[in-house]
């Protein structure tokens, strides 16, 4: 049985980018291993928020930030940023 993972919904944009970033960093700070996020219900992620995901992944002491079912636009944005060693997209 797989553990439930946090599910993020709605947009990550100018209106909530600070809260989004703080949430990501809080999850990564308390992590012992991989951090799994379900993004299947996110409908928009701006470039600033995509960068916040990369920074949060980089702050992990060990493990990876695993993004499950990220929106296609986020996949494209992360592709522009290049490969990130602690960030993984699934699928």
TrEMBL record:
Transmembrane segments: none annotated. Pfam families: STAS_2. Residues 7-91 form the STAS domain. This is STAS domain-containing protein. It comes from Actinokineospora soli. The lineage of its organism: Bacteria, Bacillati, Actinomycetota, Actinomycetes, Pseudonocardiales.
């Amino acid at each position: 049985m797989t553990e439930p993972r946090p599910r993020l919904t709605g947009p990550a944009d100018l209106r909530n980018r600070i809260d989004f970033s703080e949430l990501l960093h809080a999850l990564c700070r308390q992590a012992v291993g991989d951090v799994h996020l379900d993004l299947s219900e996110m409908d928009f992620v701006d470039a600033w928020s995509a960068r916040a995901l990369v920074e949060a992944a980089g702050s992990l002491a060990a493990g990876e930030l695993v993004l499950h079912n990220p929106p296609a636009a986020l996949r494209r944005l992360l592709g522009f940023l290049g490969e990130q060693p602690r960030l993984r997209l699934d699928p």
